[in-house]
Amino acid sequence: MSRQSDPLCVVRDLEKHYPITRGWLRREVGRVRAVDGVSFALERGEALGLVGESGSGKTTVAHTLLGLETPTGGTVEFDGDLVSELSGDAERSFRRRTQLVVQDPDDALDPRMRVGESVAEPLRVHGINRVRREAIVADVLERVGLGEDDADRYPHEFSGGEKQRISIARALVTNPDLIVADEPTSALDARVRSDILALLDRIRREFDVAILFVSHDLGVVERFCDRVAVMYLGELVERGRARDVLSDPDHPYTRVLRSSIPSLDPTDRRLGRPLTDTVPEPSDPPSGCRFHPRCPAVIPAVDLDLSHETWRDVAAFRFAVRADELPPEAVGDGPGTTDADAVAPTDVRRAVGLEGELADPDAERAVVEAAASLAAGDAEAAAATLDEAFPTRCERESPTAVERETGGTVACLRHDPTTEAPPVADGGTDRER
Ligand SMILES: Nc1ncnc2c1ncn2[C@@H]1O[C@H](COP(=O)(O)OP(=O)(O)OP(=O)(O)O)[C@@H](O)[C@H]1O
User: Fold this and answer.
1) Interface pTM (ipTM) of the complex?
2) Ligand 1 pocket test target in 17, 20, 56, 279 with most atoms within 8 Å of CB
3) Exposure string over 180-202, b if 16+ CB within 10 A, otherwise e
4) Beta strands 47-51 and 73-78: pairing type?
5) Is the distance from the beta carbon of residue 34 to the nearest atom of ligand 1 less than 6 Å?
6) Greatest CA span in the chain, whole angstroms?
7) Which domains does the chain have, with CATH numbers?
8) Of residues 322 and 431, more confidently modeled
């Protein structure tokens, strides 16, 4: 039995891989590493934000935590019990104590059922009698800002925001200890969004319920959550107090996410510009740090006489070639091209922002060679040249999570005390750019 001071939920090395199969024998040809070694704890009554781009694995973490998906590795403990081992009464109690609110309330509400019946359904499943059910439903409807009479109406009679209130009421009727709210406000317009957030916040305090808040909106998480965990391609890259992590992120990926908040000043937004836009597939994640092909603070593995800004430009060139993200004017069509369409190496260099001669002769030679290959339409040869000339430490070494100065952890080689590269904020990225 766990104590009140223990976390409500502990996730250890959680892994959820989905097999990719081919042919009628469904032979496994690969795996989608949707969640790949995620650990965190959720305290009682806290709001923890789980953020990251689409496809980073947030929903998979949330569903695995609720026992809706079976992990392929690692464990989830809820109030001291392993979720994967629950059965009978213990499993029923876990289902009552954990609830899910989804993005689109229409997915949670049966259009043919009156709202009162929908909200009461979890109570019916748990064997609560009708008189008691009606009293509880009336109470929760009022607490989410609706009236007792609304119980007799149908979902289509309500607005999007009201329907989300109803699905929150439905989550609350069993008096849960944990609500997982998966993008609960992203389908709503801005004004309704803040009403629903204010409601969730009030409910969290009134019911002393923990909320795992899944979102890609950092602004909302900063306002609503006590702590935040940032995911990238199935891994947790940074976590800590939401205010600290989001106002002063240590991980370059958190900076990239943060730069998408429109309220930030332009200098700060440029700091978080990724080298490439393409997010790699979780079935084939990059080696070392998974963020390295996009990371504006990627660390060189060889000594080059280049400013950080120029290093970043050559790294961006390298990874843009690999991600097939070069502008059309930077790639020739190969043999048979007419003079009018021909691409010159100087065009390539202009298009990737490397027009001037580089101070480092080896780097210059590689850029000349890669530009010539691209002008001749041979992107594969260009990629090979750039891979060899501009290797990074981050593709060779996997970062381990280290303590952040203000609490929490960050998994980035620049913050590893054994790395000599300066932390991002001290020159790892170039503030003037
Ligand atoms: N049942 C499944 N079978 C195969 N792959 C899956 C399955 N469910 C999710 N995935 C893959 O796992 C990865 C993580 O998906 P997930 O939905 O957890 O990400 P997310 O961060 O919640 O994204 P979003 O914000 O778009 O919901 C994605 O690449 C997704 O395509």
Assistant:
1) 0.97
2) 56
3) bbbbbbebbeeebbeebbebbee
4) unpaired
5) yes
6) 85
7) 9-245 (3.40.50.300), 300-391 (no CATH)
8) 322
Structure tokens at 236: 């947790």
Give distance in angstroms: CA of 300 to centre of ligand 1. 32
- Which is nearest to 292 in space by CA: 259, 322, 268? 322
Q: How many whole angstroms from 57 Cα to the centroid of ligand 1?
A: 6
- Of all atoms in ligand 1, which is nearest to the CA of residue 214? 22
Percent pLDDT > 90 in the chain is 67
Are the beta carbons of 370 and 379 closer than 8 angstroms?
Answer: no
Confidence of residue 419 (pLDDT cuts 50, 70, 90): confident
In terms of phi and psi (left: phi > 0; alpha: psi -120 to 50; beta: otherwise), the region of 13 is left
* Nearest residue by C-alpha to atom 3 in ligand 1: 18
pLDDT at 342: 73
pLDDT per residue over 299-348, tens digit each? 999 999 999 889 999 999 999 999 998 887 777 776 555 565 677 888 88
Structure tokens given for 214: 């899944």
Share of the chain above pLDDT 70, in %: 91
Shortest CA distance to 16 belongs to which of 235, 216, 232?
A: 235
Instruction: Tell me the CA–centroid distance for residue 148 and ligand 1, in Å.
Output: 38
Do the bridges between strand 227-232 and strand 235-241 make them parallel or antiparallel, or are there none, so unpaired? Answer: antiparallel
